[in-house]
Amino acid sequence: MVECIAGSSGGRRAWAKSIVSAEEAGADGRSVSLGLVSRLLASQFPEWADLPLRRLLPAGSDNVIYRLGESMSVRLPRGAWAAGQAAKEHYWLPRLAGRLPLPIPVPLGVGKPAFGYGWDWSVSRWLPGDTATVKGLADPRRTASELAEFLTALQHALPVESDGPNPHDEVTGVSLAKRDRATRAAIAAVQDVFDAPAMTAVWDAALRAPAWDRAPVWFHGDLHLGNLLLSGGHLSAVIDFAGLGAGDPACDLVIAWNLFSPETRPAFRAALQVDDATWTRAQGWALTTGLNAYTSYAATDPLVAANTHRQISHVLIDHARTT
């Protein structure tokens, strides 16, 4: 069993609309250059070595991503903290894919360290679609229903096993209680932007809420706008399962404040049949992940700033309605 990943709400697939050539992009801090990726493919997956290779920017915080041909992508960890993701997704996602109502990435192969690059990497099917946005939803209530259906199916898709691969501890998140000090520090840091007493009240309530006391269920672990794809304004895929785990599903409910409006959230909650304690913990997750992303990236990334400001603000809107 693992706990939720401490993910950003900024979105990992904003790069879908910004494809540039790898030659223009150059190498990142880990020197994951076009030449390196080409050599890795040629030595380990020669059947794909002649396909066009383009780096996608901006990428996520965990992986450098290249588009391989028209139907595949190559994901290469930026550092050791993400090193367990390729093996984990390669093991679990094929087992989950046929049991879920929306497409998810299907890993085609896991590459090994070589040529000075030190971590496992992966090749997966490319899933078409645009990164989800609030304004991009053609029918928010339909989306709420479809996403609730997906999460319900995911939670019970497979028996919860203890011997499947999970990411290293550096990638796996921590419980709400272990995030207490960092969350209170973040509240203090943004008190000129958001209502600090209201944030503190939300956080205290989440910590007081009864813990999940039922059998562990599967959760995505990093469910936010950047990991949902739309086609024609409707959900078309769910991506990036690095935070996949089993336990308390409250962390996946962050999407209620990240994507939905005060008018749509009740429909999402009702479709999932979420009890009061889980919903309260979910508000805590929405607050702490929003604060983490806001304090880390908002100053340099306008998209993160907008998304996380909305997420935190909507948590406070709901808090005000219930007090």
Polypeptide structure, described:
- The chain starts with 21 loop residues before the first helix and ends with a helix.
- It is α+β, with helices and mostly antiparallel strands and 323 residues long.
- The longest helix has 22 residues, at 276-297.
- Helix content is 37%, strand content 13%.
- The protein folds into two domains: 14-126, 2-Layer Sandwich (Phosphorylase Kinase, domain 1), CATH 3.30.200.20; 131-321, Aminoglycoside phosphotransferase (APH), C-terminal lobe (Aminoglycoside 3'-phosphotransferase, Chain: A, domain 2), CATH 3.90.1200.10.
- It contains ten helices and ten strands.
- The strands form three sheets. A five-stranded antiparallel β-sheet has the order 1-2-3-5-4, with helices on both faces. Strands 6-8-9 form a three-stranded antiparallel β-sheet, covered by helices on one side.
- A hairpin with a 2-residue loop joins strand 8 and strand 9.
In short:
This protein is an alpha+beta fold and 323 residues long.
Chain-wise SSE layout:
Elements: H1 22-25, H2 34-44, E1 53-55, E2 63-68, E3 72-77, H3 85-97, E4 107-111, E5 121-125, E6 130-131, H4 140-155, H5 180-189, H6 196-208, E7 217-219, E8 228-231, E9 234-238, E10 245-247, H7 255-258, H8 265-272, H9 276-297, H10 302-321
Antiparallel strand pairs: 1-2, 2-3, 3-5, 4-5, 6-8, 7-10, 8-9
Helix pairs in contact: 4-8, 5-6, 5-9, 6-9, 6-10, 9-10
Which tags fit this structure?
323 residues, alpha+beta, Phosphorylase Kinase, domain 1, Aminoglycoside 3'-phosphotransferase, Chain: A, domain 2, 2 domains, 5-stranded antiparallel sheet
